[in-house]
Amino acid sequence: MRPIPRIIPCLLINENHLVKTINFQNEIYVGDPINAIKIFNEKEVDEILVIDISASKIEKEPNFDLISKIARECRMPLCYSGGIKNISQAQTIIHFGVEKIGISSAILSNERFVSSLANEIGNQSVAVILDLKYDDNDKKFKIFFNNGRTKYHNNADDFLNKILLQQPGEIIFNSIDRDGTLMGYDERILETFYNKINCPITLLGGANTYDQMKSIAEKYSSVGFGVGSKFTLNGKFKAVLISYISKNEKYEFFES
Amino acid sequence: MICIIDYGLGNVTAIKNALDFLNVKSFISSNIEDIQNISKFILPGVGTFDDAMNKLKKNNLDNFIKTKIKDKNTTLLGICVGMQVLANTSEEGNSKGLGLIDGDLVKFNYQKNNKIPHLGWNFVYEKDNIKLFDNIDDPKFYFLHSYYIKNTNLKTNVSFSKFGEFEFIAAVNYKNIFGVQFHPEKSHDYGLKLFKNFAKL
Description:
The complex is a heterodimer of chains A (256) and B (201).
Chain A: E1 7-14, E2 17-22, E3 25-31, H1 33-42, E4 48-52, H2 64-73, E5 78-81, H3 87-95, E6 100-103, H4 106-109, H5 113-121, E7 126-135, E8 140-145, E9 150-151, H6 156-164, E10 170-175, H7 188-193, E11 201-204, H8 210-219, E12 223-227, H9 229-232, E13 233-234, E14 239-240, H10 247-255
Parallel strand pairs in A: 1-4, 1-12, 4-5, 5-6, 6-7, 7-10, 10-11, 11-12
Antiparallel strand pairs in A: 1-2, 2-3, 7-8, 8-9, 13-14
Helix pairs in contact in A: 3-5
Chain B: E1 2-5, H1 12-21, E2 26-29, H2 32-35, E3 40-43, H3 49-58, H4 61-68, E4 75-79, H5 81-84, E5 89-90, E6 104-107, E7 118-126, E8 140-145, E9 147-150, E10 157-163, E11 166-174, E12 177-180, H6 188-200
Parallel strand pairs in B: 1-2, 1-3, 3-4, 4-12, 5-6
Antiparallel strand pairs in B: 6-9, 7-8, 7-10, 10-11, 11-12
């Protein structure tokens, strides 16, 4: 029996608010993060990914107060990312009841961060988030850091190889091109990187149809589906509506 | 009254929340003096085997647990790494485990279509009767691990899960000791029912 893929709501936080972006820009206010978590609890979601986009500003500690409130409320596994620069911050966050730590920019200044963090909290709890933009000139994916502001100077492959050697527990590919667009996942990401990676992968950016998720799950195993706008906004006018795939829909799409 | 042992690893808060939701009395502690008279314990764990063992030893909790468990009226539930430290050894580290469950931890072998760690929701198949699963239909829980317990002796009751083609032990029970490889505190209703069953033991 093929396992049912993980479908993971992704919540973006700026200061204490839930926000949504398009291509990492044009932020709109969505609501209160704790309320969203409560609703997702009721809907029995598989797991949650919380990314604090304000925390990656220099010298700013992650918002421990908010993270601990979110963790306390969460009845499903939680991955937190945003502004984590050292092991002590990660340990504090794990102790709140967070299962996984997502890191990104920290690896730039500390190439061995994945390894050293894994030594403390276990490889299974270290997720690496890679924000990607497709370069039409080079016909290659480029990695960006600091919320899409800084481009990595080398090839994506180069960076990926460095972190794969350190055995992260998960790689989350976040497509800046598809972010907030509901245009579907960028499957070129899997075509480019899937075969190089030995740990579970999560796609994020552009989630729209379950058909696409099913078709991806049939071709690629161990891929999780991060979902932003689809589960937080609704309709042409982008009204805020927290939703999730129902149990029936899940079985219908992925069991048949 | 259940004591959730806080040795610096694992989501004590999530476990307390689950028990609070069930109206089961519990408290979090790392202080041996405070927990001498408690008879039901939960040992959580998110992290590495060595780190867990070191932290238990630092607080003298390793000896405390080994002694306390000899009392038949004591019951212990280990969760994830909290279960793994109950074993003899782990491939993940160099420390010796508590040796309360006869078994050793090994890493999942590479499988082409199943990437390690085993991450996500999965079904648990009961083989022997473990009271934790009473009245739970189609038990399903959240797993997040790269190591699993192997070679338990025949007196240990086990339940299984399947990772790809690979069947592995998902839960153990030996006398008054229980261990689950998955995270009931993050497994919605299934986890709540499991905690309820543990509370009722």
